[in-house]
């Protein structure tokens, strides 16, 4: 590379504010030029290498499944008025700050052997949803691919579906190979909606693939969609033939993915913020447990109190137990005890055992009712003997229960002497 070309290359990353690369019309020598151009593609060229950038816009009033894109604005606004902490909170953000991102790669594994050939993302711009996709036309053209992508990234928080474990680590891996020639990776916050889906729907859905979640939860049905597992095969065929017909179908699949992320984030936010009027009983339970794990006790109690009214069987006992523990955490023993006692008398197995111990603690230390506490502990010990051959019971728990029974017997004798 001569000195003039080196200067041109280095200037592309010395200045973040003013790009020196030129965005030109697609040159005629690119195979299937007219087909690319008719599908809204443009070229991003650097020193004889290039990538293709395809952009598409939707009205924010468009509806897909249960939601309009405008509902996303409502969700972000509602977060501004929330009074609790949550990993998916958009409090302090504008709608334009969120960056909905997905990739298509040549394989499902990680490492340098796996190449990203499509970087797709969506964002809000005024009254439109913009989708932009950066496509790698040749395996060796990653410098213009990442240079064009990173010069487009000006967003606060990344929203993905399994992006924390796959997409963004893969971007980091590929970036290390070209980092001397392109801008640095930005520091993003990250909302990974797969983790939310596991929290909310793992009991209800057989699969948590995005296409399943969007169909079952959001009411979106894809037509003539290319399965994601075919994307690598289609890309390798493109590399050989240069015919983009198959790749354009993969780009439509990626487009569907990033659009669904906007609506999925909206739906999850509505559930967390109490705005989903159609939220199911098990979803209320799952949201309550999620808030409980975050120590957001007030929010957890609201959801669990409501959920227990519709749950049955073991799920109801589990919800009641979680709710009782929350009241105990708040030192509201008057609210906690009836729930522990109900499970102790009507539940089964380890849940009955644990609830019995918790009920006995309240009776012993708060109410000083040693007789009732002793009776509950003796019943709990009988349950322990029934189930210890079927489920693992820690030896320490068995020993602690014995000690509690002996202590209560002694306290009851001391009280009876006066």
- CATH class of the largest domain, named Alpha Beta
Shape: elongated
* Broad structural category: alpha+beta
In the sheet with the most strands, the strands line up as: 1-2-7-6-5-8-9
In the predicted model, the low-confidence regions spanning at least 5 consecutive residues are 1-23
The N- to C-terminal Cα distance equals: 100 Å
What's the pLDDT, averaged over the residues? Answer: 90
Largest sheet: 7 strands, mixed
Domain count: 2
Count of strand segments: 9
Order of helices and strands: HHEEEEHEEEHEHEHHHHHHHHHHH
What is the CATH homologous superfamily assignment of the largest domain?
A: Ribonuclease H-like superfamily/Ribonuclease H
How is the CATH topology of the largest domain named?
Nucleotidyltransferase, domain 5
Percentage of β-strand residues: 5-15%
Over the alpha carbons, how many angstroms does the gyration radius reach?
Answer: 29 Å
Question: At CATH's second level, what is the architecture of the largest domain?
Answer: 2-Layer Sandwich
């Amino acid at each position: 590379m001569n000195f003039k070309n080196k200067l041109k290359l280095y200037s592309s990353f010395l200045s973040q504010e003013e790009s020196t690369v030129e965005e030109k019309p697609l040159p005629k020598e690119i195979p299937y030029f007219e087909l690319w151009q008719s599908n809204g593609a443009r070229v991003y060229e650097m020193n004889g290498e290039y990538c293709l950038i395809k952009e598409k816009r939707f009205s924010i009033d468009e509806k897909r499944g249960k939601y309009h894109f405008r509902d996303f604005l409502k969700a972000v606004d509602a977060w501004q008025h929330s009074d609790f902490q949550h990993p998916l909170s958009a409090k302090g953000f504008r709608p334009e700050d969120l960056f909905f991102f997905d990739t298509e790669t040549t394989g499902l594994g990680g490492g340098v052997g796996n190449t990203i050939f499509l970087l797709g993302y969506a964002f809000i711009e005024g009254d439109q949803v913009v989708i932009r996709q950066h496509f790698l036309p040749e395996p060796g053209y990653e410098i213009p691919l990442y240079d064009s992508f990173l010069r487009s990234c000006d967003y606060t928080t990344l929203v993905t579906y399994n992006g924390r474990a796959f997409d963004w680590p893969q971007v980091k891996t590929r970036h290390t190979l070209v980092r001397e020639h392109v801008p640095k990776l930005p520091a993003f916050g990250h909302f990974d909606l797969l983790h939310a889906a596991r929290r909310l729907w793992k009991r209800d859905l057989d699969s948590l693939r995005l296409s399943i979640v969007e169909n079952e939860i959001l009411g979106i049905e894809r037509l003539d969609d290319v399965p994601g597992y075919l994307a690598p095969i289609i890309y390798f065929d493109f590399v050989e033939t240069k015919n983009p017909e198959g790749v354009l179908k993969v780009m439509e699949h990626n487009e569907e993915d990033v659009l669904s992320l906007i609506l999925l984030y909206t739906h999850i936010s509505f559930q967390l913020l109490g705005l989903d009027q159609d939220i199911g009983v098990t979803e209320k339970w799952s949201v309550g447990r999620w808030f409980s794990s975050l120590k957001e006790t007030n929010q957890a109690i609201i959801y669990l109190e409501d959920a227990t009214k519709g749950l049955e069987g073991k799920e109801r006992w589990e919800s009641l137990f979680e709710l009782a523990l929350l009241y105990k955490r708040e030192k509201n023993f008057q609210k906690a005890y009836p729930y522990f006692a109900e499970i102790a008398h009507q539940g089964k197995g380890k849940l009955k055992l644990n609830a019995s111990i918790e009920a006995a603690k309240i009776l012993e230390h708060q109410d000083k009712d040693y007789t009732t506490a002793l009776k509950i502990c003796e019943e709990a010990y009988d349950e322990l003997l029934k189930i210890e051959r079927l489920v693992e019971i820690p030896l320490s728990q068995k020993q602690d229960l014995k000690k509690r029974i002996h202590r209560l017997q002694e306290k009851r004798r001391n009280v009876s002497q006066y």
